[in-house]
Amino acid sequence: MRLRKFLFLLGLSLSAYVPGQVQTIQAAEEKEIADAIQKGVSALKTFPFNNRFITGLVTYTLLASGESAESPEVSRGLKIITDKCRQSENQYQPTQHQYYEATIDIMALQAADPEFYISEIEMIAQYIMDGQEDHGGWFYPDRGINSGDTSITQYALLGLWAADRAGVFIPNDVFERAAAWHTKTQAQNGGFSYHPKNLQPNPSEIRGTMTLAGSGSLAVIRTILFQRPGAPDSDPNSKNSLNFLERLSPASNKDSPRQVRGTPKAIRPQIDNAVKLSYQWIEKNYYLAPPKESENTFYYYYYTLERAATLNGWETIQNQNWYSDGADILIKQQSPSGFWIEIPSYQPNAPCSTCFSLLFLMRATKKLIPKRTQAPEIGAGTLAGGRGLPDDLTKVEFKDGQLKTEASNRGEFNQLMAGLSTIELPAIPEEKQPKLKIDLSDRDALIGNISLLKQLSVNKSPQVRQVAAWALGKSDQIEQADLLIELLKDPDLTVAIEARLALCWIARLPNGLGHELDPTAKYADIDLQIDMKPIIEKWQTEIHKSWKKWYLEQRPYEQRDDFEDPAQIKFQRKN
Hints:
Layout: H1 2-15, H2 21-44, H3 55-64, H4 72-82, E1 85-86, E2 91-92, H5 98-112, H6 118-130, H7 150-166, H8 172-185, H9 208-226, E3 248-249, E4 259-260, H10 267-284, H11 298-312, H12 322-333, H13 352-361, E5 396-399, E6 402-405, H14 413-420, H15 450-456, H16 462-475, H17 481-487, H18 493-507, H19 532-554, H20 566-574
Antiparallel strand pairs: 1-2, 3-4, 5-6
Helix pairs in contact: 2-12, 2-13, 3-4, 3-5, 3-13, 5-6, 5-7, 6-7, 7-9, 8-9, 8-10, 9-10, 9-11, 11-12, 11-13, 15-16, 16-17, 16-18, 17-18, 17-19, 18-19
C-alpha cells in the first residue's frame, strides 16, 4: 500500500508540470473530498444516538460539518450529554472512558452554544482538572500509580481548550504542569510513547500516533498560554509558523517592540524546541509512522495528524502535502455506505473511525483558530454581550484600538455617558485635588488618556469613577489593570461592577473568573428586608482576591521586578 502510495504521489508531482493539468487534478480532488464528506455526514446522521460514550464525538463531528444545534440528530446528542451533568450535585458523570468521554462531550457543547451550556462546560472542565496527576499528565483514574498516558493527556487538554474557548477560567498552572510533563516524557529523538516509563521512553516504544498527540498537545498548551496573534517564527518548516499562537501586550508606540506576556518566558522556548524535535521525528518516519489499516488506531492517527500539523503550522512533511496524502488514503477506505468501518475488535467504538476521518477531511482544527484583526489583542475567548457592549459580538472587531460594530446600540452605559456629558463636576478644594476641566461629551477622548483616567478613578463622584473604569477597560491595556482591581473595592457597587466588566474585557474572559456580575441581583424579587452590605463586601473581597491573583500571573514582565515571579519559580522546579 505504501509503495503504491509513493508511486501515486510521484506520478502526481510529475504531472504537475503539464500545462493546464494541475487545476483539473486539484478540482477533481476537491470534489472527491467534498463527496466523501457529504456521504460520511449522511451516514453519521443515521447513528442511533444513545448513552454510549461515543455520542459526544458524533455530535461534535456533525456540528463541525455545519449541522445546526437544533437539528434532530444534534439535539438528541446534546440531550444525552447534558443528562450526564447532574446540576443538583454539580457533578459530571461519564458512562465510561472517563477523560476521553468528558472531552468529546465538552467539545460538542462548546461547538453547539458555549453561552447556553456554560454551566455544563464548567462542570466537565472541573472534572477534567480534578483528574490531573501530580506529574502534570492524565491517566486512567482507577489504575493506581502511573507515569501518565500521552493519549489521555491529549484528550484532557483538548477538553480544557474547548472550555477556554467558551470563556471558562482555567488556571495557567494546569497547562504549565502539562507542558513540564511533556518535555520530561519526550524521547531524545523527539518521539512520544503511550505510557513513558521513568519519564523517558525507549526508542522501541515510540509511536507515530503518540508523537503527533504529544506535539499537538504542546501546541494546544502554547495556544492557550500565549494566545494567537503574532508569535515569532520558530519552525523553519512552515511558511506560517505559529502566527496565531502568542499572547501579546499592546505597546504604547506601535513601532516599538511588542512584549510577550501571560506566562513564564522559560516555557515558550522549551515548548518550541519539543515541537521542533517531534517534527524531526515525524519527518524522518513519515511513511513508517501511520499504523496499518488493520490496527485500531489507523483512523485516530489521521485526526491526530490534522490537529498537530495545523496547530504547529506544518504545511508539508518530507516535502509532501500531508493533507492530500491523508485525504487520498481515507477516501479509498470509505465504504459504499459512507461509513469508515472499524476493525472487528474496535466495533464497540463505532463510528469513531467515521468521525476521525471526517474531522481530518473537514480540517476541523483549522476552524478552531479564530481569525484576528490587525490590532493587538489581550487575553482569550469571546466577550459576552453586556453593559457597555453590543449584544451580538459576532459582528465586533477591533480597529485602530477602537471597538467597531455594525450595531449602534452600545447598551445602557451609553445612557450614563450621555447624562454625564451635561453634568458639572463638583467643586473640589484645590489643596486636595487639582481642578479638572473635562468635556465628558467626548467620551472617546477619555480612552487611552491614562493620566487623566487615574485622576478620574479617585474622583468623589461615583458616576465619574464609573466612567473612569469604563474608559480604562476600553483603553485595553493590561498595564492599567491594577487601577481597575482597586476599583473592585469601591464603596459604590456600580463602580465595582463596571471595573469587573472592564477587567473581563481586557482579559477576554466573558464570564470573568467565575463570579456573578451583580451580587444583589438574585435578591431583587425577594419580598424581604435583607442587609446587602455584608453580601456586597463578601463579593468584593472575593473578586478582588481572584483578579489580583490573575494580574500577578498575567502582568507584563517589565512590571515584575518587585519580586521573583512565582509562576516562573514553579515551572523551573518542575523541570
